[in-house]
C-alpha cells in the first residue's frame, strides 16, 4: 500500500509529471544563459559554493564526475548539464527569480530541477553529503529565501498565462479557500513567501473532535506516504526498505525511548497546498528545535533499475534539515507525540512559530510553524500500542491509485483506550 515505489516529487507537483516536461523546462533555462550578460558576476552565495568546490581536489573531482556520469534510476532522453560552470550559472539564475505558474511544465522546485541530473550518480551521492557542500548550499538557499521574501518576488502573482492569478492557477491552488485580497494586483501578498505561506479562511479547516482527546488530527495538508509499526531505536534507514531509525529521526533527543516499538505515519505536501503546521494533540511542548541537515542528498538504495524511483522520503527524514516538536499530550493514553517537519529539495527554512518552546501549552489544531518554501514531508510518531486505528483517508494508497489528500486538522488517528494500564 506504500507509494514508495514512485518519484514523490512528481506526484506532489514539485517537478513535471512527465520527464519530457522537465527536459523542456531545462532547455528553456539553458537558452536563457545564452542571453546572459557575459560580465554578470555570480551571486556571492553561488560564488562561495564555487570556491568550496575549487578549494578541495576531491570535491572538484566529484562535481565534475556527477555531471559526466549518467544518473541511475532515471530515464533521461538527453543530457541536462555540460559543465560545473553551467551548473553554477543555472543556480545563479534560479535564485534571482520566483517559481512561475505553468499548467503543463511547472517546476515548483527549480533548484531540484537543475540538480536532478547530478543527484542520482555515484559522485553525486557523495558530493551532496559533504558538510562543506551543505553549508554552502544553505547559504545559497538563504539568499534565495531573502529574494523570495522581497516585494520584487511578488511580480509572479499576476494575471498572465505564467502568473499565479491566472484562472488555471487559481483553480489548482483553490484560492477561494485562502485569505487574500481579490482586488489587489498581487492578491494582497507582500512577497512570494507571503503567498506560499498563505492561511486558510476562517472555518475552512475545522479541528476534528476538538474536545475529544481520543481523536488525533493531521498536522499538515498532506498525502499519506507510509505507515510503519514496531520501529526501532536504531535501524539501517539507508537500505531499500528504508526502515525508520528513531535515534537519527529525532536527532538523539532524550524522548526516543518513548517511541521504541511504536508507529510512524509519514505524508508529503503538494507544492500548491497549504504549508503551515498544526498540533495533532493538546498538551505541553517538551522540546522544539530545527535540526540542521542535508538539502539534496539521495539514497543509493533506490537502485539502478527503478523506472520511477522514490525521493527516499524515509531516508531524508533522518538526514535532511527538519523541525522537531515533541509534545506531552494531556491524555495519558497518548503520552508523548513527536512531529518531524522535514524540509526537502528547495526548502530553505523550517520556521517554528513564536512561543512554541518547552513548557508552552498548545491546543489540538494550534499552529506550530511553517515551511517557507519548497517540497516537504511530515512524520508523526506515536508510542507502542497507542494507535488503535488510522482514518481511511490517512492510509497510503497503492502507486497506481489516486492519492488521497488528508486535510490539516482532520481526523488522522484514534487512540487505543487503556494503554497506560496495560
Q: Could you describe the 3D structure shown?
A:
By secondary structure, the protein is α+β, with helices and mostly antiparallel strands. The protein has two domains: 8-153, no CATH class; 215-421. It is 27% helix and 17% strand. The chain contains twelve helices and 13 strands. The strands form three sheets. Strands 2-3-11-7-6-5-9 form a seven-stranded antiparallel sheet, covered by helices on one side. Helix 5 packs antiparallel against helix 6 (110-119). The radius of gyration is 21 Å and the shape is globular. The two termini are 30 Å apart. The model is unreliable at 1-5 and 302-311 (pLDDT under 50).
Please describe the structure with a list of short key phrases separated by commas or semicolons.
seven-stranded antiparallel sheet, 12 helices, 27% helix, 422 residues, three-stranded antiparallel sheet, disordered N terminus
- Strand tally: 13
Instruction: Note the overall shape.
Output: globular
As for the number of domains, it is: 2
Order of helices and strands: HHHHHHHHHHEEHEEEHEEEEEEEE
* Rg over CA atoms: 21 Å
How would you summarize what this structure contains?
This protein has 422 residues and is of the alpha+beta class.
